[in-house]
Design goal:
Blueprint (H helix, E strand, L loop, with lengths): L22 H34 L32 H5 L25 H4 L5 H5 L26 H24 L29 H17 L2 E2 L9 E8 L2 H14 L1 H4 L3 E9 L2 E9 L4 H13 L5 E4 L2
Parallel strand pairs: 1-3
Antiparallel strand pairs: 2-4, 2-5, 3-4
């Protein structure tokens, strides 16, 4: 193998990079180094000063000139209702005041306006003094005097009528004589002048429009409907039947009495319904449930309960088990 000679090619001095960078490059390098060192030293000095300032220096607080708050001469506004009460002096002054001649613990009561007062206060009753002085009575309260009827014209009596009249007069005179002898006749005293006569007597209240006989008929009809209401055996009711419970009682007689009362009060709702009294026991206590049967479904029982609740009667839709 032939040896390679490296000295055959010579390097051109003009094509290479100069070995010496020059003065400009040296100045730039030294300037960058000095700036970096200055930044590091400045940060160190600044941090040291921050740490030593809070420790070594004494804080000084300068007071403001004049008061911090000033109350206005005319604050305006309204005084509260609780101001000036004796019960607030302990909290306001920090101690108990001496005995006072007059102690006010609450503000005065609020008076009602003229239109808010009750009707009796707005229209006071008429006094007796006003009646005696001759004050005019309202037309609604004034009673007209009884009309004076003309005396009937006497008619000619037949002989039979004269006989009857004489017999009646004789019997009346005998009755008066017997009463006078027995001491049973009392002298009738005349009314004094100051007693109010028929012109000022109050009229009686009118009777109610509902007759007593009508009320008696309604009560009898309710009693008959209550007696005709059938009672079902709870064991014969199929499971799933829709019922309505009206209450729970200690015994069966009380439950039946409550059914009679409800039937009399709500005959229109309980018409055509059957009574069910079911015995039950809970926590060792025996009671009787009063229930109603005869509903087509859940909606029918709910409508019934809604109507009963609207009349302030207890009602709960249930299902037979």
């Amino acid at each position: 193998m032939a040896d390679i000679e490296y000295d055959l090619y010579e390097e051109d001095p003009a094509s290479g990079v100069p070995d010496d960078p020059g003065v400009a490059g040296a100045v730039i390098n030294w300037a960058g180094a000095l700036v970096s060192v200055g930044l590091v030293v400045g940060l160190a000095v600044w941090g040291y000063q921050l740490g030593m300032r809070d420790v070594g220096q004494i804080p000084v607080v300068r007071a403001l000139e004049g008061p911090m708050r000033e109350a206005p001469e005319e604050p305006g506004g309204l005084d509260a209702a609780h101001q000036g009460l004796a019960v607030n002096s302990v909290q306001a002054e920090g101690g108990v005041d001496g005995p006072a001649d007059k102690v006010i613990l609450a503000p005065p009561p609020v008076e009602l306006a003229e239109e808010d007062k009750p009707r009796a206060a707005l229209r006071p009753p008429m006094r007796e003094e006003a009646l005696e002085e001759g004050v005019a009575i309202p037309a609604a309260l004034r009673l007209e005097p009884a009309p004076e009827h003309e005396a009937p014209v006497p008619l000619a009596l037949s002989p039979e009528d004269e006989v009857v009249r004489a017999a009646v007069a004789e019997a009346a005179s005998e009755a008066v004589a017997v009463a006078a002898e027995a001491g049973e006749s009392d002298a009738v005293e005349a009314l004094p002048e100051d007693v109010a006569g028929p012109d000022l007597s109050p009229r009686p209240k009118p009777r109610p429009d509902v007759e007593v006989a009508a009320l008696r008929n309604v009560t009898d009809a309710a009693a008959v409907s209550a007696a005709q209401s059938p009672e079902l055996d709870p064991t014969e009711i199929a499971p799933g039947t829709r019922l309505v419970q009206l209450g729970a009682f200690d015994d069966a007689s009380t439950a039946r009495a409550e059914w009679d009362r409800l039937t009399a009060a709500h005959d229109d709702l309980l018409e055509g319904k059957s009574r069910v009294i079911q015995e039950a026991e809970s926590s060792g206590r025996r009671f009787f449930r009063l229930r109603v049967a005869g509903f087509k479904g859940l909606d029918d029982s709910r409508r019934f309960c809604s109507a009963m609740l609207a009349r302030d009667a207890a009602c709960i839709p249930v299902t037979a088990r």
